[in-house]
């Protein structure tokens, strides 16, 4: 048994005295503390009880768990982006490392779509998906926050309205012209769908707050704040381009192809559970969504999303 290090005890004592706490109370608390376990630290039991099916079809469990994994990875991505966004003294190596981490998470998401594309029975999916209406992956708020945190709002505006919007446009007006708004409009009634109404009831206020928060600290804005020499750094530019392409082409197309397998399976294109024209909404050739357009050539921009 190792002897207690007096210097360590002194450091602990100083730590608690600096915050106005009695070190003896905290040391006594260690006497009654129980050892940490993996399952307590990760909250395994709680995590494994978050999967609640709405049907008796086995492959619905795959669908639920996969989307929960997506949301956890979205949280990891936002965790890394926020370290860049809120870093007052940003350096190129720090920025590059965080972008590489973020890209690895999206690379994992893109590669993981084989779980959806090849890992569910088509017949089961077409049965249990009827229970999901009007819910849709469209309603992932974290994904929207990732977009706001990555680029200037203008790059997320429906291309038909970009000429009428600039940095001085009120956030509410910009919100109403985001590229994904069209997917929440019923083409017959021209009114917002139930999917969109429910989404906005829960998240619109937060959405507007996120838009304002990231307006001057998004990844592109932080990139432009770097010294000009750093903005020419090949490793940083490569990381920016990889992230942009991975999010807006590779991951989107993996999602698109997985959806096509199921929704085009009977010879006709099924409507998305939320009611949107999912092919038009998802395909990068239609949206031309690019986080960092200045880092791509005119030819690359014109061929965006062409496989």
Structural notes for this entry:
The chain has 307 residues and is mostly helical. The protein has a single domain, classed as Methane Monooxygenase Hydroxylase, Chain G, domain 1 (Up-down Bundle). It is built from 17 helices and no strands. Helix 5 (59-85) runs antiparallel to helix 6 and helix 6 runs parallel beside helix 14 (234-263). The longest helix has 30 residues, at 234-263.
Mean pLDDT: 90
CATH topology: Methane Monooxygenase Hydroxylase, Chain G, domain 1
Class by helix and strand content? mainly alpha
CATH level 1 class label: Mainly Alpha
Beta-strand share of residues: under 5%
So what's the overall shape?
Answer: globular
Q: Which segments are poorly predicted (pLDDT under 50) over 5 or more consecutive residues?
A: none
Oligomer: single chain
Give the % helix.
Answer: 55-70%
Distance between the termini: 64 Å
Count every beta strand, where a strand is a DSSP E run of 2 or more residues.
0
The number of helical elements comes to 17
Instruction: List the domain count as a whole number.
Output: 1
Provide the CATH architecture. Answer: Up-down Bundle
Main pleated-sheet profile: none
State Rg.
Answer: 24 Å
């Amino acid at each position: 048994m190792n002897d207690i290090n007096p210097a360590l005890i002194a450091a602990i004592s100083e730590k608690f005295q600096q915050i106005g706490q009695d070190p003896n109370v905290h040391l006594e608390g260690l006497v009654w503390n129980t050892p940490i376990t993996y399952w307590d630290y990760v909250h395994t039991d709680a995590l494994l009880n978050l999967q609640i099916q709405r049907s008796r079809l086995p492959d619905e469990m795959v669908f639920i768990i996969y989307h929960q994994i997506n949301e956890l990875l979205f949280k990891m991505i936002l965790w890394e982006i926020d370290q860049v966004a809120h870093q007052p003294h940003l350096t190129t190596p720090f920025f590059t490392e965080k972008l590489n981490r973020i890209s690895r998470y999206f690379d994992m998401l893109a590669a993981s779509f084989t779980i959806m594309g090849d890992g569910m029975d088509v017949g089961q999916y077409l049965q249990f998906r009827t229970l999901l209406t009007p819910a849709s992956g469209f309603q992932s708020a974290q994904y929207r926050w990732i977009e706001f945190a990555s680029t200037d709002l203008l790059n997320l505006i429906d291309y038909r309205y970009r000429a009428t919007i600039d940095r001085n446009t009120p956030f509410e007006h910009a919100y109403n012209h985001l590229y994904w708004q069209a997917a929440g409009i019923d083409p017959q009634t021209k009114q917002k769908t139930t999917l969109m109404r429910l989404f906005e009831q829960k998240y619109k206020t937060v959405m507007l707050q996120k838009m304002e928060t990231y307006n001057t600290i998004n990844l592109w804005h932080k990139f432009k704040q770097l010294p000009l020499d750093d903005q020419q750094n090949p490793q940083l530019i490569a990381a920016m381009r990889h992230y942009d392409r991975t999010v807006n082409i590779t991951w989107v197309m993996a999602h698109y192809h997985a959806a096509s397998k199921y929704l085009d399976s009977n010879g006709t294109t099924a409507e998305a559970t939320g009611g949107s024209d999912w092919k038009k909404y998802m395909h990068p050739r239609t949206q031309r969504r690019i986080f960092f357009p200045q880092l791509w050539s005119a030819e690359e921009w014109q061929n965006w999303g062409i496989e």
